Amino acid sequence: MPSMKLAIIIPAGGSSTRFGPKDKLSEDVGGRALLLRTVEFFTKRDEVQEIIVAGPSKDFDIFKNKFGPSLSFHGVTIVQGGTKGRWESVQNALQVVSDDIDFIAVHDAARPALTNSLFDDVLLASKNFSAVAVALPIHGTVKRSCNDATVIGDDDAIADSILGTNSQTKVQAYKVAETIDRSNLWELQTPQIFTASLLQKAYKSDISECTDDAQAVEKLGEAVHLIEGDSRNIKVTTQADLQHIRAILGAKGEQGRPAHQRF
């Protein structure tokens, strides 16, 4: 599709509470920050005319100071994300997409293992369909649980008095409410690609409860088509995910000093 003019929106303003206290987008993946690994994939694609990164609303200046020079080197536009959710960050990014863009793809900032073959498949599908999302069929058994958890703790008064209450071993158990038929169930990934006019239209409607861009389009009554994704195209959500993505990419994390050079 040589004539395609494609813009990439990368929401990068999440709080990452499940990752822990560190900023996961700054984590070292083979000598570069995780966010830059994600962005650099798109800088190498001829179809991509624009890349827009929506940073966090809180501490936006810190984000720009940290990533701005590297992102600017790649011609990336940085906008401030929203405070209400991911959808607001995408909405803000849409405001700066050029008028001559044909398609807009949205991709998670913490999903750096996208491959050219998978992206080629997305672009091929977009020749026929105005909304295409990458997803994985769900093969495992799926259970729906009740909301409330039973907390089971191993109380040790002596250990608590010495180490504090955090020394207790605890586990949360959720009662199964039902087993869900997994037929035709998919777990969504990114990228998700849309005709520019369709995504712009979707974001002018009420999308405040949407958890992804495909859902925003669905609310218009428009069809969204899925193509099978790649199990390696994971989103870094936890510390374990970070180790997994380093293994997938054959990349190491930040290296400490050798023992003989510690002083």
- Structural class comes to alpha/beta
Percent in strands:
25-35%
Distance between the termini: 56 Å
The topology string of helices and strands comes to EEEHEHEHEHEEHEEHHEH
- Mean pLDDT across residues: 89
- By DSSP, the count of extended strands is 11
**CATH fold name of the largest domain:** Spore Coat Polysaccharide Biosynthesis Protein SpsA, Chain A
For the largest beta-sheet, the strand count, sense and barrel status come to:
7 strands, mixed
Give the CATH H-level superfamily of the largest domain.
Spore Coat Polysaccharide Biosynthesis Protein SpsA, Chain A
| Tally of DSSP helical segments | 8
Describe it for me?
- The protein has two domains: 6-137 and 184-255, Spore Coat Polysaccharide Biosynthesis Protein SpsA, Chain A (Alpha-Beta Complex), CATH 3.90.550.10; 142-180, no CATH class.
- Helices cover 28% and strands 27% of the residues.
- The protein contains eight helices and eleven strands.
- It has helices spanning 34-43, 60-73, 86-94, 116-125, 157-163, 196-202, 213-218, 239-249; strands at residues 6-11, 28-29, 32-33, 48-55, 77-80, 103-106, 131-137, 142-154, 169-180, 186-195, 225-228.
- The protein has a seven-stranded mixed beta sheet, with helices on both faces.
- The protein is globular and about 65 Å long.
